[in-house]
Each structure stands twice: as structure tokens, then as C-alpha cells.
Amino acid sequence: MNFLKKLLKKRIKEVTRMNQETVGNPIIVDAVNDISQTDNKSNSKEAIKELIMLYYAERFKVDENKYPNYFRDEYEIGFPGEILKTLENKKYIRQATAIESLKFLKLPELKNIAKSYNIKVSGKKDEICERITENLNNNEIDRYITDRYWKLTEEGKKKLDEKPYISFYLEKHEYSLANIGINIFSLSKEMENAVTGNIRDILWGKFNQLSLKFYNNGMVKGEFKDYCELHRIMALFLKEEKRYKEALFQYSKYIYYRANFEASLSALNHYNNMASIGFKTDDCADVLYNRAVIYPFMADELISISNECDLDSVHLREFLLDAFSKEHDTGVFTATELTELTMSGLNGNNEAQREICVNVMNSAIKELKKIIKKK
């Protein structure tokens, strides 16, 4: 518990002042501002909004009047339809032809068209679409099309390809860069200022910079949520690159820091705050358990990476124990205890996880009492 002892001593003596003296006045910067302030030029931001709508354009009808709230909440786009019309005027998108619109029809609708022209109706949706387009012209199909969708032109595709990081950000990932303060506007500015255009290299470098910032912030504030989430994102980022062993090691760091930094400090701070008015050890154990428990989504992510490494449960246990043992910053969990907690979580044994947290908390409180007594 050397790491926590140091941190708790500082927090007992007015956390902000003492930590700033110890850390050396680290620069505390919001992650979005740290990665860079967005461009003050409104046209630059508007250009990014156009690229966002260009990416999503083909999902919407030409006469669409209701758009998802995330456009406004995440991208500051209050009037998506107006931007789509602008993109049409710039010839980046056009209305889809009747043939191109077939894919948006439901299977029963496609079968009805096929039956009307004695076309074979068996098979998958794509197969029926192909048979219809082979036997009917655009005008014949047009009679059955009630809704037209947007379609990217070659110029539109070219425009989107010029900024590949836009598509990268908007694509579906197992993680969200927004969770660590990186939004599409700050990422765009970062890419524009970068020497190299490789989005993954630039992001990895930014992850390492944020790691130091979040660690320093955690030392001052006693909160390591961002620091922990960053390591989870780094692990899943490595998984995308099929660097599975590195991803597994990074995910083990996420589990370690989450349990021994974020969860441990929350539980011990709870004890420190409640000690004077009376409390039950189980209350602190609840705090520890709720912050350190291996949730189902974590189990799914860890097992998925482990499977890619061809590790069975025995070898995964060995890997985790070795990885946890290599960490220098120590918290309330020993490497063995944290390994058992993790494996219990992977097996869905919440009772075992709670029992481990209770035992760990009892030992931690004894240590904390010694610290307070010396003061």
C-alpha cells in the first residue's frame, strides 16, 4: 500500500495544496482542451459538420424530417437537413435512383415486386434485389419506390476520403474517444497540425500524453477514473490492430489501476470521511466492491482478447498474476487477490468478488488506522 499511503497522507493534510507541492504543480488541462482548442474559424467547424453529415448521408431519406439527437448532442448539428441540402448543392450527394433504392425496401415488399413479374422469390434479400434489377429497368422499379435516400457522388466520396480521420472517428468501435475528452473537432485540429497523416500513430501518441496528464491530475484530485478508462481504450485500440498480447497486457493494467487506484482511494476516502461519525466496515467494502467489481462488459472484453491469444482460463490466470505482480504502484489489492477477484468476475461469481473486497478492506483499514495514529 505504499502508493496509497503517500496519497492518503497528502489528502489528510489538505489534498490540493500538499499535492501541488509534491507533484510540482502539474498542468491540469481538460482533455479536450489539451488535445487542442477547436479552431476559432466558424467555417472550419462548419466544414467538419458537413463531413459528418456526408458520412451519414446515405442513411437518411431525402424528405427526412426527424434526425437522431446525437447530431445535436455530440456534433452541435441542430439542422441536419439543411446541411444535407448544402451537400446536394455542392454535388457531394444526390438522390438515389430507383434501382439504388431497392435495398431499402423490406423483404416482403421485394417479394411482391418479384411476384408481379414472375421473378423467383426464394433466397436472401440481396439475391432478390439482383434478380429484380436484372429483369426490370429503372422506370419499372420506380413505381414501387415511395422513399428516396441520399447517395454519395464520386466527388462526395473523394471529399470524405481526403479526411479519413472523420470516418475513423464516426465508425463503430468498442470504445469511445469522447470518454477521454477527444471529440471530432479537437481530433480534426490535431490531425491538421500533425506531421504524419497516420491517424492511429497520432492517436497512440496522444494516448501516451494523456496518460501522464491524467496520472498527475489523479495525484492532485485523488480521482483516477479518466486514467483508468484511458488504459481500457488503449487495450481495445491495440485489439483493433490485432496486437492481442499487448492488448491483454494493457487491459490488465486497466483492471489493476481501476482496483488499486480508483476503487481503493474511493473506499479509503469514504472511511476517512465517515470515521468520526461512526461507520461499518461493510460500507467501505461496498464502495470498494462497486468500483472494483468485474462487470459483464469487462468480462466480455477481457475474454475476447484472451481468446485471440489462445489462452485458456489456467493460462489467463497465470498471465494476470504475472502482469499484476510487475506493477510498482501498490494499492489495497495484492497481485494474488486481484487475480482471484478478476477470475471470479470472469466466472460471474459476484459473491466471491464481494468476499475478497471485504477481506481486502479489513486489511486496508488496519493500515489506514496506523497512518492516522502516527499523525
Q: How would you explain this protein's 3D organization?
A:
This protein is mainly α and 375 residues long. The protein has helices spanning 2-12, 15-23, 31-35, 42-56, 70-75, 80-89, 98-101, 107-116, 125-135, 138-142, 154-161, 164-170, 184-193, 199-221, 225-240, 244-274, 281-292, 296-308, 313-325, 335-346, 350-374, and strands at 93-95, 150-152. It folds into 2 domains: 2-35 and 202-374, no CATH class; 42-169, no CATH class. The protein has a two-stranded antiparallel ribbon with strand order 1-2.
Taking pLDDT < 50 over at least 5 consecutive residues as the criterion, the unreliable ranges are 10-43
In total, the number of strands is 2
Distance between the termini: 17 Å
DSSP summary: helix tally: 21
Shape call: elongated
Q: How would you characterize the largest beta sheet?
A: 2 strands, antiparallel
